[in-house]
Amino acid sequence: MENFKEANITVELCGQLATILADQITIRIAENGSNIAKVRHEIAIKYPEMAVYMASPRVKACLDETIVLDSAAIMPNQILAFFPPVSGG
Questions:
Q1: For 63, phi and psi rounded to 5 degrees?
Q2: Cα(10)–Cα(2) distance, rounded to whole angstroms?
Q3: How far apart are CA 85 and CA 26, in angstroms?
Q4: Could you list the pLDDT tens digit for every one of the 89 residues in the chain?
Q5: Other C-beta atoms within 10 Å of 4: how many?
Q6: Are 27 and 46 in contact (CB under 8 A)?
Q7: Is 16 helix (H, G, I), strand (E, B) or coil?
Q8: What is the set of domains in the chain, with CATH numbers?
């Protein structure tokens, strides 16, 4: 059986997401990286109150300040943030 090493990443939650949980949370990913879809899944499992938001395509992922698709790769040293839809006038 192969041993997988893990690393922590800090995920920033913005807007309404921060009011539901916190400004930042910590998630474990594989030391050699993961992707945004897997991080969304891990957040939904670890924080069930976030599941509906993590499943929504309207909640955008930003990696190193660039909006990315869920297929985007993420490494432990990168900055990940999730942004809910913005409304207003």
A1: -115, 120
A2: 26
A3: 22
A4: 456 799 999 999 999 999 999 999 999 999 999 999 999 999 999 999 999 999 999 999 999 999 999 999 999 989 999 999 875 54
A5: 8
A6: yes
A7: helix
A8: 6-83 (3.10.20.30)
Token digits of residue 55: 């499943």
CA–CA separation, 23 and 10 (whole Å): 10
DSSP code, position 62: E
Which of helix, strand or coil describes residue 40? helix
Beta strands of 1-89 (E only): which ranges?
6-13, 24-30, 34-35, 60-63, 66-68, 73-74, 80-83
**Whole-angstrom Cα distance, residue 68 to residue 48?**
23
Kindly state the greatest CA–CA separation across the chain: 56
